[in-house]
Design goal:
Blueprint (H helix, E strand, L loop, with lengths): L3 E7 L4 H7 L1 H9 L3 E6 L6 H10 L3 H4 L15 H7 L4 E6 L1 H6 L11 E3 L7 E5 L14 H15 L3 E6 L1 H9 L4 H15 L2 H6 L2 E6 L15 H4 E7 L10 E3 L3 H9 L15
Parallel strand pairs: 1-6, 1-7, 2-9, 3-5, 3-6
Antiparallel strand pairs: 2-8, 4-5, 7-8
Helix pairs in contact: 8-9
Protein name: Alkaline phosphatase family protein
GO molecular function: hydrolase activity
Organism: Aquibium carbonis
């Protein structure tokens, strides 16, 4: 690999809340250590649809994941498959949907919760399911535990590409919406937890992207076409050259951009242009 990169996905945070509530991330932008752009999610802007598009670089209408309830192993090349094909090591600390889409479906609670497979697309996987999730019980692990697990994979196994995905803020948003005291506090807590780990990842030689899969409305909804539902921030820590700060990025650009930064050939199915060079 030419470089190492970590992708951090905080599920369900709209553009507005990124820019006003994540003081640590904004501080790094202000100091010049990071850049930030607005990115727009695919449609439907539903979680599973976005996950599959983030990693394959194709729309839901192509990969076929059209709702959270319709899940299978996608057939298109993805970031995991292409990195391991090029000889790199991958790591995932995510919701179990990512394992289903990019390794095997259905998810086996015993066999698939944690695995280390040198020949697999996901070399080192650590997953959670949120089984029993509802309005009154989020069933989400602590974000700091997830950040620590990703750091462990980087330190212990030397992964070249790693993804972390947490649903805490998405779940908070479904319960409270995105314009209230609990949500303000939840975003600030996530920002502070992330701030404790991001300098360590940079010191270990990783470029880092921090972003969301979609936005969310003040009533806690996403899935449709609307700026609040589709638009979110992407913060980039690295040496790549990017577009003007007012450029609106397409979510389908994320996969080919990550592969390009890693020095991995971009498959023909990923037709969107990388936004970093």
């Amino acid at each position: 690999m030419q470089r190492k990169l970590l992708l951090i996905i905080l599920d369900g945070v709209p553009w507005r809340n990124w820019r006003r509530l994540f003081g640590n991330l904004e501080g790094w932008v202000q100091s010049g250590e990071a850049r930030v752009w607005k990115m727009r999610a695919v449609l439907p802007s539903t979680s599973a649809c976005c996950y599959a598009s983030i990693h394959t670089g194709v729309s839901p209408q192509v990969h076929g994941i059209l709702s959270n309830e319709v899940r299978f192993r996608v057939s298109q090349p993805d970031i995991f498959s292409e990195v391991t094909k090029a000889g790199g090591k991958t790591g995932a600390v995510t919701h179990s949907y990512w394992s289903e889409f990019f390794r095997s479906h259905p998810f086996d609670l015993v066999e698939d919760m944690e695995y280390d497979e040198p020949a697999g697309p996901i070399t080192h996987g650590r997953f959670h399911t949120m089984t029993g999730y509802g309005h009154d019980n989020q069933m989400t692990p602590s974000d700091v535990d997830l950040f620590a697990t990703l750091t462990m994979l980087a330190k212990r196994h030397g992964i070249d590409y790693g993804i972390l995905h947490t649903c805490t803020l998405d779940s908070m948003g479904h319960r409270f919406g995105h314009d209230n005291t609990p949500m303000d506090h939840a975003c600030a807590v996530a920002d502070a937890m992330l701030a404790a780990f991001l300098p360590k990842w940079r010191a270990a030689g990783y470029e880092v992207m921090v972003t969301a899969d979609h936005g969310q409305t003040d009533r806690g909804h996403h899935g449709g076409r609307e700026d609040l539902q589709q638009d979110f921030a992407l913060y980039y820590f690295g040496d790549g050259q990017g577009p003007a700060e007012d450029t609106l990025l397409d979510q389908l650009q994320l996969a080919p951009t990550i592969l390009t930064r890693l020095g991995v050939p971009v498959p023909e199915t990923m037709k969107a242009k990388p936004f970093l060079s």
